[in-house]
Amino acid sequence: MRRKIMVLFDPETEYAVRFMEYISRKSSIPLEVHVFTDFDRVKAYIMGGRTEILLISERAMRDEISGWPVERIIILSEKAVREPGERYPHIYKYQSSNDVVREVMACYGSAAAPERVQGEREITKPALRILSVYSPAASALTSSFALALGQVLARRSPVLYMNFENFSGLSGLFHEDFEENISDILYSMRQGEKDTAASIMAAVRRTGELDYIPPCLSGQELCGIGFEEWEKLFDILGRETGYEYLVLDLGEGLGHLRDFLEASDAIYMPDAGNIPEKVRMDAFESWVDRSGISRIREKIKRVKISSGDLPKNRDRYAEQLVWTGLGRIAAEAAADA
């Protein structure tokens, strides 16, 4: 995994410390962050090494800094509205640290060049494990289990959740309006105009401890995506981000189902235990055997689930799932993930 060097320079010590505390908790960010509150020290550091991003307080900006060997200078502005004609991109300082990082990655990604990655230091991390949640008798319970599984795993490791259902409803569930979604990341990857890892981090949202990429409004929008593109995306996630688990909430409308299942390290199949679901699952496993992909069967873990005590309201729904019966089932399933 290649980590980019970002320097934060802000004489406001409290802000700098708070930002550093956030970065230290969020190990999925592909950044090595150094925080300074003193001008001479930050100058010495940047002049003596490699820095991709300088995130600097508007009050601390000086003319000479423009000549420092930094790929991208981004201003932390105390004004929420940017003035026209400004030389450097501005980010509003007093928003959440998560939103600051997301905007930093978006600014950096827009200026990324393929040559930039040469010479970056290599960081060893565990291989990305792909965990798919799929049921041939899909229901809302299936996605609730996938979210619970992601939240449980995120307590111990960096996790990214992706939803491929026809109509996920995540925007309503999380009270979020998504400006970017997975299709935007795939588009930028196709064009080769951006650093895809930066594009991913710019699009990522968080619910509780779990990171997720906003889905398309309808999963049908992804049917024309070749599986080789998904493989490329998974490879980038494995090499260039800190994620250790990728939880895929596979929907019925997604193309290349067989390929996704074969690429998975484990397949969790929620089972509510009723007769219609059982016969569909039996039919699915018969298809697996007849298709000559019996190795998929070895990855399937049937998980008995119940909707008895799901959260009763949408506020912090995903976080609440951990404390329900479904969350306890997910914790048991995650024990050997």
Quick rundown:
The protein has 337 residues and is α/β, with parallel strands linked by helices. 39% of the residues lie in helices and 19% in strands.
Q: Structural class, from secondary structure content?
A: alpha/beta
In what order do the strands lie side by side in the largest sheet?
A: 8-9-7-10-6-11-12
- Number of discrete helical segments: 13
Main sheet properties: 7 strands, mixed
Please state the second-level CATH architecture of the largest domain. Answer: 3-Layer(aba) Sandwich
The geometry reads as elongated
The mean pLDDT is: 82
Rg is 22 Å
Poorly predicted tracts of residues: 112-124
Helix amount:
25-40%
Q: For the record, what is the CATH homologous superfamily label of the largest domain? A: P-loop containing nucleotide triphosphate hydrolases
Q: How far apart lie the N and C ends?
A: 22 Å
CATH level 1 name of the largest domain: Alpha Beta
Beta-strand share of residues: 15-25%
**CATH fold-level name of the largest domain:** Rossmann fold
